[in-house]
Amino acid sequence: MPSLQKTSPPQGRPQASPVVCPTHRDEVAAAGSELIGGPFGRRALIGGSALTPVRVIALVAIGMFALGMVQKIPCYDWAWFRGTTSQYTHACYSDIPHLFVGRGFAEGLVPYFDRLGGDIEFLEYPVLTGLFMQLAAWLTPGGGDMMHREQTYWMINAGMLMVCAAVMAVCVARTHRRRPWDGLLVALAPAFALTATVNWDLFAVALTAAAVLMWSRGRFLAFGILIGLATAAKFYPLLLLGPLLLLCWRAWKWREYFVALLGAGGAWLAVNLPVMLLAPEGWKQFYLFSTERNIDFGSVWLLISQRTGVSIPPGTANTFAVLLMLLACAGIAVLTLTAPRRPRFVQLAFLVVAAFVLTNKVYSPQYVLWLIPLAALARPRWRDFLIWQACEVMYFLGIWMYLAFTTSGNKQGLPTDGYHFVVVLHVLGTLYLCAVVVRDILAPERDVVRQDGSDDPSGGVLDGAEDVFVMGAAAHPGRHAAAVVEGPRVEWGVPRG
């Protein structure tokens, strides 16, 4: 039965070390370190070099982002402008140059206020992302041929997104104070390099990573403001407030949660309210488009539709997606309140965002960016991370080869059956990572973050806090090794001796 009780963190845990060296604890990291001189040695300088872990990670992230830009060179030079198939066969497609023209930025149209005159009447992106796109358009010089202007627009966006990439990597490296090198998982993620400039998702990802850092430092209002801004750029960051509610419920940290919630609501309104009032039709385009769009690439719904030959209307897909998402959230709630130890914040954040992308009507290649920082913090093990990344890279290549197949009259590229295989592969890869995170929650002694004596480095006020509301086996600390009773237990508000 659920109970209100105070339990302290597990007794007898080892004292947390100052800094965790992955090459001492991770076989894959140790093997990979041979490329740069081998595992961290006892005579290595600590703090005596300008190349601190955070700086190294920032530089590596910028380098990987630059490699992703190099990968787009065939499209930048000609494939975006001289044929649709070639941008797929070179796997260098990007929405950015196409939407420069397709959403009126090249003509000087104002997002949300000016009609586009096509199937989509207004820009179908959230307001803060629209501002990001507009800022890049203001920085793009007018005049000259359209090809040159599209190239310039993409390059300016790439420069702005590179800053976002560095912010994301630095925030991840600083979130777990004793594990800064886990930021290399983000910086070296191949899917990050490949998808960073496909769309504008990296902007919202950077804001979300900064928000998680603020929560880990106990800055609840700053966390809420950043989550509100991130939600004004992309919908998914709002989902992090759900797991946080459950964790604050279990630890009885209501004041901190509501401060964060008010900050999120205030920041979101501050960005959206002017457009809502002055251009209501343009403002709601994002929400209408999200509701009315058909099932799309990468989703299990498209796979089911193509395999069965049955068309799935948007309304039906919406209904089933919402039901499955609610079911997944209910499972996460039960897991949170019954786990032997309170789960870490980023573990639940990863699970809820993964549930969202898996049940959604579309699972675009760049959505992997939403998960990369959370995955690096939730399960910082190179083997599991690279297994998942391999699946995502296979899907990244598969989607473009499939589009090459369909746009070339079935002459080149990946046929439908092959595309279905890579869809299943990247779904299974995400589910695999979810499974190991759930296993860590159920068996916290296997959680690599907690093996150095930490509790919840990203949890802020939750880190080391007492449990108050628990259910299941965790509600009976006398029968479970992970809790120690302090004082009388209360079940549904009724004291029990």
TrEMBL record:
Cellular localisation: Cell membrane
Entry keyword set: Cell membrane, Membrane, Transferase, Transmembrane, Transmembrane helix
Topological category with respect to the lipid bilayer: Multi-pass membrane protein
InterPro entries per UniProt: GT87, UCP010361
Pfam families: GT87
Keyword Oxidoreductase appears in the UniProt entry: no
Main location: membrane
Transmembrane segments: 44-67, 152-173, 185-214, 220-246, 258-279, 316-339, 345-364, 385-406, 418-438
Family of the protein in this entry: Belongs to the glycosyltransferase 87 family.
The protein's name: Glycosyltransferase family 87 protein
